[in-house]
Amino acid sequence: MDINIVGCTAEYRFAVMAMENGLRVSMPLLDSSPYDAIVETPNGLRKIQIKSTAQKIVNNGVALTIKRTGDPYSLADVDYFAIWIDAFKGFYIIPNNGTQRRFKFTINGKKYSNNFNNFGVLV
Fold it and tell me: Which of 9, 28, 46, 88 has the most Cβ atoms closer than 10 angstroms to its Cβ?
């Protein structure tokens, strides 16, 4: 599947899943925005950068590098990453700490297990 289709599908999938979890979602009209969605929660607005990968599982997991023009996403631009891992059929929703560049998600991994399809972390 074309990489643009994979990314676009992930953005719409995130919006639908967030709404199914009782959250309101807005998406910018321009693709040059540093975030892909804004989620309205009872505790305020959250700027979400949505990433996706169709990589196959290698060594029990999937690794992903994220960056914007060579630099990590700033805390001013992005509050959370929603990372769709096609091999796991789900999103990892992870707070941005301003320095992340690389993630590794493993089958039954404990590091991000509480972030898998957990839209509650946005609240």
Answer: 46
**Alpha carbon distance, N-terminus to C-terminus of the chain:** 33
For residues 38 and 47, the answer to whether their CB atoms sit within 8 Å is yes
Domain residue limits at 46? 3-122
In which residue are the tokens 């992340």 written? 100
User: What is the pTM for the complete model shown?
Assistant: 0.91
Structurally, the chain folds into a number of domains equal to 1
Express the helix, strand and coil content of the chain in percent, nearest 5 each: 20, 35, 45
Q: Give, for 53, the enclosing helix (H) or strand (E).
A: strand 44-53
- CATH number of the CATH domain containing 95: 3.40.1350.10
Q: What pLDDT digit, counting tens, does each position of 8-64 carry? A: 999 999 999 999 999 999 999 988 899 999 999 999 999 999 999 888 888 888 988
Round to whole Å and give the CA distance between 114 and 106: 13
